[in-house]
Amino acid sequence: MESIEAEEEDTETDITVEDGDLKGRDNPLDPAKIRRKLTPLKDYKFQLELAVKIRIFQSAWTAKYLFQLEPVTLDRIDILEAKLRDIEYELEKTKNNLDDEKRGREIVEEELNEMKDKLADLEKAIVKTNNPKAHERLKAASRNVAELNDKGQLQWNSVKGLGFEPSSGGYGVRVLVAGWYMVNATVYLAPQTVGTSVKLQLNGNYLRSQPAPINGKQNTSVTFAFVTNLKKNDELTIIATDSQVGADLDAFRVGK
């Protein structure tokens, strides 16, 4: 702690008096008569002595005031510095916590954005699943035809699906999109007592043939299942006997 040198000389002190009645000759406090003296003591203490002359009328008094000034101890300074360091530490800790919280929010936002992207992809997949790209598919049916035409062709009561249409007055099915197709056809027959066969034709030409089983008094059926390449406007027809009781024809395009 730096030592303070006391000034033993009398020093004038300015006093501002706000009351106008104290001005001039009637002022009992004469600023010029106020003296101060600072004396160093032990243990870095000081004594401040103030001497004030008071004059009233023809009388005068001198009032003396003594003040003992004690230094602030280093312990108190150390305590204040320690408290200041604690405050700075808490501020730094709070700042770090805020930074960590900010980074945590950023990570959460990134995860939320990733989740939103995944949900968007999932929604697209669901929409795609619920609205799949249409593929060419045929489902035709023939039921209880009273009699065949002169060529023995089955007449289709209904032709449903994409990429096909009925043709030849309902006796054929026309292909509208070229490609490789899986074809399944089943012809249901009344009991057969003599040998006969069911034929599948493409554009009036032979494509496939299956013999009808002879099984006495029980109904029977003939089934076709194969993959073939069909061109646009190809026509499928089935030739059967007059004992047929119905037929189903299914086909769907494989690949693109």
UniProtKB/TrEMBL annotation:
Residue span of region Disordered = 1-28
Task: State the coiled-coil residue ranges.
Answer: 77-151
Q: Name the keywords, alphabetized.
A: Coiled coil
Has the keyword Coiled coil been applied to this entry? yes
Stretches with biased composition (Acidic residues):
1-19
Name of protein: Uncharacterized protein
Q: Which organism is it from?
A: Phytophthora nicotianae
